[in-house]
Amino acid sequence: MSFLLESDQKNTPEARLSVALAFLDAHAAQHLDEAQLITRCTAAVMERFAVSQRTANHDALHALAATQARNEPAYVDINHSTSHVIYVTSARTGRLIAFTASELISLADERRATAQDAEYTTARCGRRADR
What we know:
By secondary structure, this protein is mostly helical. The protein has helices at 13-27, 34-48, 53-71, 101-125; strands at residues 74-76, 85-90, 96-100. It contains 4 helices and 3 strands; from the N terminus they run αααβββα.
């Protein structure tokens, strides 16, 4: 499956998202972790379109969110969220969860530390510890 669009496609957010989605669908099984997949997807979008790394990474993250939503449908409730609290709703269960900005930073830090621990263990053992 090719992730390239026809040459007459314009550099639009929709076209970039389409390329990113196609890349993730085609390559997800080849990667052990999301960070590597997103990095490569970002590079693919930058290669196809004349955009910055920041824009391409933004498109890759949107594509990742769309693919994750296939398995766990959820959405951010924009109407109730603020710059200090984010409300997330599970479309499957209807459960509403609130995260403060501080909690999100803590979760990100924990995830980063866990990923670093897994990389260290992988280097020592030759395989992923969390798989």
